[in-house]
Design a protein that fits this description.
This is Reactive oxygen species modulator 1. InterPro entries: Romo1/Mgr2. Belongs to the MGR2 family. It is found in: Membrane. It is built from 2 helices and no strands. By secondary structure, it is an all-alpha fold. The protein has one domain. The chain is elongated, with a radius of gyration of 19 Å. The relative contact order is 0.21. The mean pLDDT is 89.
């Protein structure tokens, strides 16, 4: 038996979309946490200027990538 779909029908997102959404959410949260922790630790030990920016950028990318990967895996499960 055929079921008529209305123009307002909701569809389930695909697995790839869920994994992508999990990675983006995790990357955003990880980068925010990395920024807070690295700025605090760099200022505490006395790093200023370009050293501060380089260290903060590196820590944000590392924590964002790591947390994003784990969130993507979690969304896949």
């Amino acid at each position: 038996m055929l079921v008529a779909l209305s123009p307002y029908a909701q569809f389930q997102p695909s697995c790839f979309h869920l994994v992508k959404m999990g990675f983006v959410m995790g990357c955003t949260a990880g980068m925010a946490a990395g920024a807070l922790f690295s700025i605090f630790s760099c200022l505490r030990i006395g790093i200023r200027g370009r050293g501060l920016m380089g260290s903060v950028r590196k820590t944000m990318m590392q924590s964002g990538g790591t947390f994003g990967t784990f969130m993507a895996i979690g969304m896949d499960i």
